[in-house]
Amino acid sequence: MIKCTLGQLAKMINVENDVMEFQNIEIAGVSFDTRLIEPGNLFVALIGDANDGHKYVDIAFEKGAAAVLWQKDVPNPPKNKPVLQVEDTLRALQDLAHSYRKQNSAKVIAITGSNGKTTTKDIVAAVFSEDYKVHKTDGNFNNHIGLPLTILAMEETTEIAILEMGMSGKGEIALLTRIAEPDAAIITNIGEAHLQDLGSREAIADAKLEIVEGLPKNGLLIYPGNEPLLVKKVSSLKQFNTCTFGETSENDIYAIDITIEENGSNFIVPGLSDEPLFLPISGKHNIMNALAAILAAKEFLISPTSIRAGLKSVKLSNMRMEWHDGIKGTRILNDAYNASPTAMRAVISMVEKLADEREKIVVLGDMLELGEKEVEFHEQIGEELNPDKIKYVFTYGPLAKHIASGARLHFPDERIFEFNDKEKLINVLNEKVEGNELILFKASRGVKLEEVVNAMLVR
Fold first, then answer.
1. Domain tally for the chain?
2. Binding site for ATP: which residues?
């Protein structure tokens, strides 16, 4: 984590008051939440829509904060305390992170995309950890506040920083990449998430490509070569190096001889190894994420042996492709952290193609932030479900009912169940499960479908 004196800190950002009296005070780490603050932290008083961190400055000092960033237009800063006044506390936090990143010798890999950002981050971290000291984004700390905090939490001895970059609108990735100045950037895919805000997949592609604004001229952009929107746009951007991954041999890296089972995926990468690589995550879409990680690893001269070992050791963040033992001998796949049409199709396809004799049940909730075509997207998911592979379709939520509507084109009514009440869903699911089925749970995070998952687990 960042460790410096207030005198040093005042040279890293624009501090508008005289801190000479406190210049030798040392800070270690940064926090904006008094519930999580640790002794020695710099407390940043952020102003949000619903709360103002300046109200908690006294508590921060009581809990051991070494100093505070205070926005100068807020009245009554504490007297005789190490308070650094700045024009804007959020901007100061971001500027501090950028300055610390510039001082640190770590190489930075930035990751964005409509789906698969966190999974790809976890895969990249596992592979790079074989040869380097790695720091990565924790949880979903991937926005204009979380990314600066992630950088400032980085140890000075870090060799590789893996930073996830999320967005909800235009300009957000540009801000994050300017703060992080990555040496390499990965775009996982272009899906439908954020259509509500951006309006089209082309606009989403433009927003994701903002990530290159922070790349140096010798930097590397890794992107899916089977995505026409990106291929067209990247071809006009020649100031950095590029590599592609995908399903076909036209890409710089691709996979063959793919086999997918519950405990993971085996695949061969031509030119890397004649022996299959093992990724302990199921699904072709996750193999694509692994290919992006392999390209990054090759750029940083990581050996095939280390790549193989790193892939084998991958562990995912919570509620992403989690397998559990369920009631009556069922197996439960909880992938309910987030959802978009692209992500939902990918995991349903994986479940349908699993070499497994279990009967399959899908429990699908609302996909949020899809804009004016949200009903159509849900209906399409239902229409694409295979009645020869799926035993029952359960939906939860006012949008997911359109998945049920689409499924009725191929499924008889007695195999489709719609709910807006989780208790009723749980009760009927309990009734219909006979034993030994595989149950997939998938929905956007706001649906909180994990509440249903937890009710179906073995206690």
1. 3
2. 113-119
